[in-house]
Sequence to fold (984 residues):
Amino acid sequence: MNRQLVVIGNGMVGHRLVQALRERDTRREWHVTVLGEETRPAYDRVALSSYVDGTTADELTLPELGVQLHLGDPAVAIDRAARRVRTASGRTLSYDALVLATGSVPFVPPVPGRDLPGCFVYRTLDDLDAITAAAEAAVARPGPGRRSAVVVGGGLLGLEAARALRRLGLSPQVVEIAPRLMPVQVDEGGGALLRRLVESSDLAVRCGVSVTAVAPDRGRLTATLSDGVELDADLVVFSAGIRPADALARAAGLALGERGGVLVDNRCRTSDEDVWAIGEVAALEGRTYGLVAPGYAMAEVVADRLLGGQATMTPAELDMSTQLKMLGVDVASFGDAQAATPGALEVVVDDPVAGTYSKLVVSGPARSDSGELVDGARTLLGGVLVGDASRFASLRPLVGSPLPADPAAMIAPGGVELGADALPDSAQICSCNAVTKGAITSAIAGGAHDVPALKACTRAGTSCGSCVPLLKKVLATEGVEVSKALCEHFGQSRAELFEVVAGTGIRTFSELVDRFGRGRGCDICKPAIASILASLGTGHVHDGEQAALQDTNDHFLANLQRNGTYSVVPRLPGGEVSPAQLITIGEVARDFGLYTKITGGQRIDMFGARVEQLPAIWRRLVDAGFESGHAYGKALRTVKSCVGTTWCRYGVQDSVGLAVALELRYRGLRAPHKFKSGVSGCARECAEARSKDFGIIATEQGWNLYVGGNGGFTPRHAELLASDLDTEQLVTIIDRFLMFYIRTADRLQRTASWIESLEGGLEHLRAVVVEDSLGICADLEAAMEKHVGSYADEWRGVLEDEEKLARFVSFVNAPDTPDATIEVVRERGQPVPLPAPGVRQPTELRLRRPCAVIGAGAPITAHDPAGADR
Amino acid sequence: MTTVVPDLRWHDVCDLARLLPERGAAALVDGRQVAIFRTHDGGLHAVDNIDPISGAAVLSRGIVGDRGGVPTVASPVYKESFSLLDGRCLDADGVSVTVYAVRITDGRVQIGIP
Ligand SMILES: Cc1cc2nc3c(=O)[nH]c(=O)nc-3n(C[C@H](O)[C@H](O)[C@H](O)COP(=O)(O)OP(=O)(O)OC[C@H]3O[C@@H](n4cnc5c(N)ncnc54)[C@H](O)[C@@H]3O)c2cc1C
Ligand code: SF4
Fold:
């Protein structure tokens, strides 16, 4: 019999519980119903702040789990005797087991005026929508003066909120009652530096004072502080801590912790055997935890228990480490950061000039009963890192273990860098998902030999991602060379080969494979090297030995289709096409019997050309002024555009003009993979620029540049790289971005995964291509100038060269005899290949209800078989 | 061991110069489509032009290389490699293409068909 599980709360921890249960409950013992107060499906609250950077709600949404989910319908009462839950909409649900995962509510100090319009909390996507709307209204408000906001609370969340407000165009002031920022995580020494770093990123900070009142003031707000200072603000955001959302449990008579939260034992069971509590609402042996990792651990325990397991929580081992995300200020704290353990010693390296503060907390020297020294101040208890938190990933897992070197050396600049072999098997590598080094090494032994495989089988690295560098180190120490070899012929990565080719001046595959590889290459390395040579501007892609490196698309400058024919795409820069050009394309397609289709990139694709027809087709196109569209190449495809100021009522910039100019600038540029662009004339984004490798959206002031977007298999929105650029700045940054990508990406790596693979990700990319942190920008720009200056149409190059033309034959000994295996049928009035056996049948819509076909054209067959379910 | 070598009929195809090193060419020989390859060391190989996996007549347009020293061509459709020595597909069990005899006579490429 199916037992009924009701989960109240569809947040991160409730979601994790259901996910864990679904994975393990293979016999489907439990039927699961989830009640959510929010109207959206569960999302990644930890990454909430990225919402203001353009990450969409969809992208934040956690995977769907296929259980019954009632959103926007909170539980309002629990009848424990009858084992029933009642919801706001009046639904009643019976349960065999009930899990409370209601999380927390923001704590708003009881100051007068806290409910005024313009006052917000910072917890949910709805909160962020409201804050964004208010900020936009403030920015749009006529009249002079700064648009400002007051953030009440200078902890982790307050700083995140302040950054978000700054991002929305306001000047935030952070008010913190404690004498320093992030008082829970950071000690006094670190706090002083943190404050300096925060202030230098344009946030005003006031510590040691509190907000005592908020009052309306001519359409804005005034916040009064305990020292009498008055701050005017368009918005006030309260982020002064959280309180467990335990009202429901309290009303149901469940035991609560002394400081709130539903009291649970180490099995996460409440005072009622049938009721469990997990996540921020749970007071585990009396203590609540405001972080996601302990919540996940509780979810795992309850999933195990529901299936008859014996898992328990060990509070002492809970990971309480935190890292400040996204302020551009590195802060991390872990373990006993405040040195509260009796006898603990602190080792501090404070470098105000470099702007770094590092502290390790270690156990004091311990002596055995006989007076021998048993622990020479070596067990790591915790630490604080401010200004440079790069060692966080390798230090955190060592908490509770002896340090492998002198503590000071481990935090000193240029000191000991820890390898993964220094970590014990019990060390937690991924704290979000509680994955130990032992679990990772056994996954590696089981065949997971790269980071994606480890993520898939251990879940390590799938939440905040900060442990990914460490995963790589563990792979390395386990002897799994994360092989960067291109293929069996080259031990180097694509990026390394690029450097080799650029540095040595080698220009043929033969010389390269003789000197730096082995064998005669394959379909992996040859096209990759062809692409490198082409990016370096070595003439026509069919010149000399290069011809033999190209895959069939680049060899015939057309796209191979499944029946051995090719498709032909002339370039239409920006998607602009004149009536005369349309007529030419139509005539060519008609005369050669080609099938035509409009592509997603705003051009016209002609399908079904046989090899020997390609030159004649292109002669007609080139004569009419067309050139290759490189639809076949790992190269720039299209720059899609909307009509912008040319036609559109809303346009603020000339998107078509820019798209045409960009497409002409980067046409023919070969890269590790194909890349696409788009330009929208205003924020309405009709060109879908954010789904492109580089997308441009017009603003009143200029252009915003987004990078790393992707449609296809793993859709991803491009992220903002730089904003409000003038056209010259924009082109310069795109030049650098593309050349940096071409030089350093892996074979067949799209920009999205390339950016993800950069250590430091988008921030690093911005440093390199906007701030020129590596000093290579002049070089990148020069390389792009060289490409632009040497561009020539590839098809014209073929038509002008008899030797190149000679390859476009069906058979060497019967150059004009068509390939007899190519058979064509007609579908919807156009020629298409014969369906492959058993693979593709023309689709016919079968509608179950009577349907009127309105208008002319091919009728849609409407079936209404007798007995159909109606 | 005895090998039965059937009588071959040789068909003239083209000048050797028409074959680019490490590239293939399709030929129509006695009604069949044959893909002829010239490897870097000057070796000549001929196999069926029809890719048994996709059914398209395109093997002559694949990239020529080697796997562990065995000369190969990779189908341009789904990228499986075939040995040019015995026609075996190196990426799919039980799949292979016919291998044809090929020779040069007076600078002309010839294909032998049993
Ligand atoms: C901006 C921000 C940044 C953060 N950054 C980090 C970080 O870097 N690291 C970290 O570890 N943690 C971070 N956190 C904290 C982390 O998000 C929480 O620890 C985690 O979400 C807790 O999960 P939960 O499921 O217990 O609660 P929640 O995710 O809050 O989910 C509880 C859900 O229950 C719903 N609910 C409440 N009452 C009812 C009811 N009666 N009926 C039905 N549904 C109900 C709520 O609406 C909510 O959707 C951050 C939080 C925020 C807001
Ligand atoms: S993005 Fe803006 S300018 Fe372009 S078509 Fe849409 S509304 Fe008009």
The interface with chain B takes residues 488-489, 510, 519-523, 525-527, 545, 547-549, 551-553, 555-556, 560, 562-564, 611, 806-807, 810-814, 817, 819, 821-822, 836 of chain A (CB under 8 Å). Residues A 8-14, 35-38, 45-46, 48-49, 74-75, 101-104, 122-123, 157, 160, 245, 248, 279-280, 290-293, 295, 322, 325 surround flavin-adenine dinucleotide (ligand 1) (CB under 6 Å).
